[in-house]
Hints:
Elements: E1 3-7, H1 11-22, E2 26-31, E3 41-45, H2 51-57, E4 61-66, H3 75-93, E5 96-102, H4 124-141, E6 147-152, E7 154-156, H5 171-175, E8 180-182, E9 192-194, H6 195-206, E10 215-217, H7 226-237, E11 244-246, H8 249-256, H9 260-264, H10 270-273, H11 281-286, H12 294-312
Parallel strand pairs: 1-2, 1-4, 2-3, 4-5, 5-6, 6-10, 7-9, 8-11
Helix pairs in contact: 1-6, 2-3, 3-4, 7-12
Amino acid sequence: MNLHVVVGFGPAGAATARLLAAQGKSVRVVTASGRRPEPGIEHIALDARDGERLAEAAKGAVALYGCAAPPYHRWAGEWPALAASLCAAAEATGAVLAMLGNLYGYGPVDGPLTERLPLAATGTKGRVRAAAWERARALHEQGRIRAVEVRASDFFGPGVTEGGHLAARVMPALLRGKPVSTLGDPDAPHSWTYLPDAAAALVEVAGAERAWGRGWHVPTGPALSVREMVGLLAERAGVGPVAVRRLPSAVLGAASLFSPLLRELKEVRYQFDRPFVVDSSAYEAEFAVRATPRDRQIEATVDWWRDRLATAR
Length: 313
């Protein structure tokens, strides 16, 4: 049985599950609440922090994809249990554990981010994410599991909604030609990972033995500032120039009193206050997946958001 088990069905989990299904794989998705089946994808409901139940759901799987994440403001309390469960299920079943990570674990650095940098984050969320991978890596080195991680920068593209910095806080206003607000310096170079590329990389390394035992950066296009990305999106949408305003610190502080997400974003503001550039050349030297051309990324993102907003009316 060529079973692939995807834990989580947020934007990344959904993209991964649907890519696997399109490749003809047998796909089982694990979420807390479950969902109705869709073509090629079975959905089951269980708490992924329960290692025994997750192992039962992953019995016979060739790969287990860690795409779930607790609510942003509950990372410190819930990530350790989720990471432990994923590792326990991988050990019990023999499935390759392919983890979707991010760049928080490095903490603030000067210059481009490469996989050679130490996981030296000092913030809570960065330490939690680093610890999740370090647990899996240690078990891999002990020969108890086979594990790999792909690390993405900020997601954008079809399927990215509330959590994206170029998504729900930008696209509805942009498509009306209205000004948009952003965290940090709108002119600082920033790397944006196109969601379908992250799913493709995760699936590729899960099946490539030479990838296992380390982290890899998802192929990501050249860094562009928020202002530059908004300009490309607005041009594609045909709405003319759209103003980009930096969200004042006082406004952000006041809003964070009512928004757990904004409150938690303080820890990673450094990613937007200065250049935040990802180097994915190590991945590109070893594997086939490449970043989708920027014009196709922009076109697909605008078209998806237009359809989404039209359907919501």
